[in-house]
Every structure is written in structure tokens, then in C-alpha cells.
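It is worth pausing here to work through a concrete case rather than discussing structure prediction in the abstract. The textbook approach is simple: state the sequence, then state the predicted structure, then interpret. We follow exactly that order.
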Amino acid sequence: MSEEELQLHFTYEEKPLGSYSSDSEDLLEELVCCLMQLITDIPLLDITYEISVEAISTMVVFLSCQLFHKEVLRQSISHKYLMRGRCLPYTSKLVKTLLYNFIRQEKPPPPGARVFPQPSDGGGLLYGLASGVATGLWTVFTLGGVGSKAAAAPELSSPLANQSLLLLLVLANLTDATDAPNPYRQAIMSFKNTQDNSPFPSSIPHAFQINFNSLYTALCEQQTSDQATLLLYTLLHQNSNIRTYMLARTDMENLVLPILEILYHVEERNSHHVYMALIILLILTEDDGFNRSIHEVILKNITWYSERVLTEISLGSLLILVVIRTIQYNMTRTRDKYLHTNCLAALANMSAQFRSLHQYAAQRIISLFSLLSKKHNKVLEQATQSLRGSLSSNDVPLPDYAQDLNVIEEVIRMMLEIINSCLTNSLHHNPNLVYALLYKRDLFEQFQTHPSFQDIMQNIDLVITFFSSRLLQAGAELSVERVLEIIKQGVVALPKDRLKKFPELKFKYVEEEQPEEFFIPYVWSLVYNSAAGLYWNPQDIQLFTMDSD
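Step two, the predicted structure:
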């Protein structure tokens, strides 16, 4: 039913349809306030676990009118209750409680402690939800692009944590009121660490403090789900206190490795989960300290990386490997320009700080360039043949090879800039990259005279020529170890002033102009897939019938 009809159920005076006088008590607002009080004020015990989950679930259902609209709702009765009036004072307390529920990941109480009797099959209202009833039902969010798989509902170890996280994401993504910003988003943007004793500025409403160490640990442990990755993105992007704290951690691998694993298993993830993971990496690589420190963290035996046994590799080299693999997957399967752009931007941000690149990471950088080079030559050949064919037949429309060529050349230039940035800023730290360049030097010859790449090729050509001559002087039949030794000696002898300086490569993530058009359907798809069949009839859903783009 519509919100207006729902409101009539809570209006105790008999009135004509559509009219509503302001002097009568608003029982619907009373209900929402009571739910907020239940969620925030009742201590979490075995006997209160289920009532807490039900209160949160009822709040989610109350806000679910969005599911029955194709367009993003910018004002509604639920917006009015939550953003002003009696509910507003509960804003920071509610956000804090939901975050702590996510942090604690409390499991349901044992059967003997349950307040509501359970059916003999062990199911029931909450536990049906917890077992992922979306499996096998109508999947609402047909996700195009990468992976193209809808997120399967995982087994939930903590229904309370999951429902709390979903409600938090729904509240954070409510659109601003015409006369007031979303207070829940304000609270998420401004909360501080419990160890931060500085006073809150008076201009920041709904501020509170939370234990950042506990939050960081929970975020690291829960990255297998879309909603936890979306929360991490939201906090990194919108809360500068959290971002500063995370970038200062000395155990960043605990956060970065789960994100890399999402990208590594790109075929098994839906495109939105992959995008969120990639944007998180892009935000992290905006920080030079992060880009330096990831090359100092040495990892052993990365079991989920199956292309090659990696007994020892730096976090930085592994990050490069996974991002390049994502680009190659995208080139052969989905050809999504947005994904390419973000992958290359992350590599570009890191390039000036590449340190002691693993030989396999250096090889993959050059292999990606080789793949792009072949693709460029193929499209160039197709364009030439097509042009010849068009001269003999005026009727056949030509494919737009010029546009394809332009896109490939943009990506090739970006790759050349990444290689150039590494050579000009940290040549002495990366003998393996010089080795890989020399091994595949023929690849770069065709681009030396190309008008789009001549400037950026100067340094690469200089490095290849300089080290090639030193290898020639050393004689033939050189071992890999001997070649690397010559490279390390040559790095010291190469005059740095001969390398032309280019502007530093820096890319910053900027959210779309109307992010709600992406995030609101995404959040509600997660809510729906987590609770499908319990609350909503698939045939009534309107929100996800929009174009999947």
C-alpha cells in the first residue's frame, strides 16, 4: 500500500480520504519513535536479541516504500518522520547502536533462551531470514558488467549485525530534505574515535564517538559481503576521521587483502561489489604514505592467488598483479570503460612509489602493454580494411573503428605514463621492471614515432637504449642474475638529468553528480536479497525494473 494508506491505518479518527488535521495525535510517528527507543535503549541480552532484530526489521520495512517506485524518492512521509520532529534527537544514538551491532556480530541466542517459540523444523520468522531465503527466489538486481552475477545470500552468523548494517545503509542513503540535509549521513560523516579528546565543532550536529579499532577489525573481517564493502566505501569516502585513522594503521594488509580477493574473484562477484572494491583502492592510493608503505609489507603464501605460486611478495606488488588481472579480464569479457579508468587511475597513483617490484608483477605490467599493443594493431588493421571496402561499396555503414582506436590509444598512453612515472621517480628501486622492458623492447619500437606517444616514449626509449648498450658490452649468453647485476650497476651510472620530468600522475575519486541514482537501488537490492519472500512480493517491486546501467 502507499504511505498515505498506511498512515490512515494509524489515524484513529474517522476522516474523509486524503484529509488529515494536525491537531490529532500522530500514531505512526509514535511507532517510529518507539522502534528507535527499542533499538537504542534496550540492552542486548539473550532475551532481547529477537525483539531488537524485529524492531530493526520493522524500521527497514517502514522505509521500503522506495521498492514500489521506479524513481528515487526525494520526499515521503518516512523522510518527514526521520529527518525532523520527535525522531531527530535519536539520530546519533541510532547510528552508533547500528554500528556497534555490526562491530559485535552477536550470534542468535541458543534455542533455550528464545522468547518466541520455534516451529519443529527450526525455522521461524528470524531464522528464515538468517538462512538466506533469497536463494532460489527471484533475483532482483540483474547486474550487468563485471562478473554479472547477483550476490547470493550468504549464511548469516549474526542476523542482528546484518539487519543493523542494512538499516544503516538505507538511512545513510536517504535523499536530503529540501530544507535540511540527511542527519544520518551527517552522523556517519562526522563521528570520531573514542580516543580523540578534541571537542566537536558546534557546527557539527549528531556527532558521537566510537571505538575505531573495533570498527576497523570488523570491517576487515566482514568484506565478503556487498553491504560491508559498501559501508567501508561510505566511511572512507565521507568520514575524514576514519580515513586518516585507517591510512595510519600499520596492518593495512588486513584491510587490503580482502578487497584484493574480491577483485581476484571478479567472475563470482556482481559488478557493483567489484566497483566498490576498486573505488576503495582508488581512494587509498590517493595517499602517498599508503603507496609507500604497501611495498614494505611482505606477504607469504597467498593461497587464493592460483595463477602462480607466490611464496613471498610485497602487498604493493600483489595489488598491482590483481589490478592488472582485473583490467585483462575486463578487456576480454566486459569491456567496461569505467572499470578500466579506475584500475588505471589506481596504478597511476601508485606508480611514482613503486618499490622493489616482484619480477612477476613487472612481467605482468609489460604483458598488459603487449596485449594492448596487439589489440591496437588489430583494430588499426580492421579500420584499414574497412576503409578499403567502403571505397567499393557506398551502401554498407562502417563500424566506428576510429572511436575504438581512440579508446585503446588512451589506455596505451596511460600505461606508458605509468611505466614512465616509475622510471623517472624510482628507477633504482625497480631492476625487475627494467629487465622486463629490455626483454620485450621490440614492443615499444612502433610507438616511438607515433604522434600520440612520442613525448612519453622519450624516457622509456632512453632507458632501453642505455641498458641495451651496457648488456652488449657485457657480452652474449648472460644469465638472469648477471643481467640484473648489470642493470643495478647501470642505474647508478645513468645521469638522472637525462630523464625528462613529467607532471606527477594523480587521480582523485569524485562521486557522480547524482550518486543516489546508483546507491539507492543498490542498497535496496541488498535489503531485498537478504529478506526476499519475508516482506515483499516480487511482482510488486518497481525499483529494479529500471535499466541495469
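Step three, interpretation. Strands lie at 192-193, 209-210, 298-300, 312-314. The chain has 23 helices and four strands.
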